[in-house]
């Protein structure tokens, strides 16, 4: 597995194009990892599933029973994730990405998808592109999907970072509503934000057990590691106004995922023929 290294000041980023176009490591030299580093086994899998951060394209999260309703069509999709019977997180995370550009502080990766085979694969052609720009203060990931079909198709984007999680790690972000989910993490009802999931003031994430999609996000989230004396500010452009927060029990990571659409709702997100959906997500660490 060949990694692409980006370096600027104290920031270090390694990319794994062959493992789903993923980030394999994001660290501050002298402080430590900001995201869960990918193991050799994770990289050898050829997917981004167990890396630091991987792309979600052409949709994020689960599509219930593989039944995607889009206008008057019903599209059947096969399961694509180990142990999950619902198609999840699109297709890009499991495919190699082409390296278009690599310099000391910049890289560009492209994934051309020519359409699935048979009746159960994602049927629509697209081109996805990630750009990575590192400076002494931040990492910025530009992400886009271009519709290569001669008709409107469903399309979405997202990033799935796995942040390091200490006992005292905190999260702050402003949200409006949330989708309640069932035991299979499928959305069942959108409700106004309940007090127990209000992050408008920074609060610890440990013990929250979340795996939900929120809307009304203003595009900024702040993660704080008090004992490390470290803070990370995540900002996203208008394309990403939903946020999935995943805090699994018993793990040393948690996820704050900027996405373009609500869980299961990519069918309500048409992209016109030849059009491109694009946005940027920036990660800026700083000392407290």
Q: How many strands?
A: 24
Output the CATH class name: Mainly Beta
Number of helices, where a helix is a run of at least 4 consecutive DSSP H or I residues: 1
Mean pLDDT: 95
Number of domains: 1
Q: Largest sheet, if any?
A: 9 strands, antiparallel
* Structure classification: mainly beta
The CATH architecture comes to: Distorted Sandwich
For the record, give the distance between the C-alpha atoms at the N and C termini, rounded to a whole number: 36 Å
The amount of beta strand, in percent, is over 45%
Q: What is CATH's topology name?
A: Beta-galactosidase, Chain A, domain 5
Strand order of the largest sheet: 8-9-10-11-24-20-19-14-17
Topology (SSEs and partners):
Layout lengths: L3 E5 L2 E6 L5 E7 L3 E2 L6 H5 L8 E4 L10 E4 L2 E4 L21 E5 L3 E8 L12 E9 L4 E9 L5 E2 L3 E7 L5 E4 L3 E5 L5 E6 L10 E2 L6 E5 L4 E6 L4 E7 L5 E5 L6 E7 L10 E2 L4 E12 L1
Antiparallel strand pairs: 1-2, 2-3, 3-4, 5-13, 6-7, 8-9, 9-10, 10-11, 11-24, 12-23, 13-22, 14-17, 14-19, 15-16, 15-18, 18-21, 19-20, 20-24, 21-22
Please tell me about this protein's structure.
The protein is built from 1 helix and 24 strands. It is mainly beta and 288 residues long. It has one domain (4-287): Distorted Sandwich (Beta-galactosidase, Chain A, domain 5), CATH 2.70.98.10. The strands form 5 sheets. Strands 8-9-10-11-24-20-19-14-17 form a 9-stranded antiparallel sheet, with no helix packed on it. A 7-stranded antiparallel sheet has the order 5-13-22-21-18-15-16, with no helix packed on it. A 4-stranded antiparallel sheet has the order 1-2-3-4, with no helix packed on it. The longest helix has 5 residues, at 40-44.
């Amino acid at each position: 597995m060949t990694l692409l290294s980006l370096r600027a000041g104290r920031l270090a980023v390694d990319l794994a194009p062959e493992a789903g176009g993923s980030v394999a490591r994001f660290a501050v030299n002298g402080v430590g990892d900001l995201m869960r580093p990918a193991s050799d086994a994770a990289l050898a899998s050829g997917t981004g599933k167990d890396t630091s951060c991987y792309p979600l394209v052409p949709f994020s999260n689960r599509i219930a029973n593989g039944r995607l309703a889009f206008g008057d069509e019903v599209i059947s999709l096969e399961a694509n994730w180990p142990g999950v019977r619902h198609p999840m997180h699109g297709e890009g995370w499991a495919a190699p990405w082409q390296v278009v550009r690599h310099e000391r502080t910049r890289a560009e990766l492209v994934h051309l998808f020519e359409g699935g085979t048979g009746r159960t694969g994602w049927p629509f052609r697209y081109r996805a592109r990630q750009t990575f720009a590192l400076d002494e203060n931040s990492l910025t990931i530009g992400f886009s999907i271009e519709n290569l079909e001669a008709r409107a198709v469903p399309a979405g984007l997202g990033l799935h970072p796995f942040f390091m999680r200490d006992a005292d790690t905190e999260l702050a972000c402003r949200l409006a509503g949330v989708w309640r989910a069932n035991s299979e993490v499928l959305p069942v009802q959108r409700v106004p934000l309940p007090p127990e999931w209000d992050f408008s003031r920074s609060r610890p994430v440990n013990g929250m057990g979340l795996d939900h999609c929120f809307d009304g996000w203003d595009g900024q989230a702040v993660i704080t590691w008090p004992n490390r004396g470290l803070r990370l500010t995540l900002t996203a452009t208008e394309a990403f106004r939903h946020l999935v927060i995943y805090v699994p029990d018993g793990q040393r990571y948690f996820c704050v995922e900027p996405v373009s659409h609500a869980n299961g709702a990519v069918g309500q997100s048409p992209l016109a023929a030849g059009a491109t959906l694009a946005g940027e997500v920036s990660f800026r660490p700083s000392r407290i």
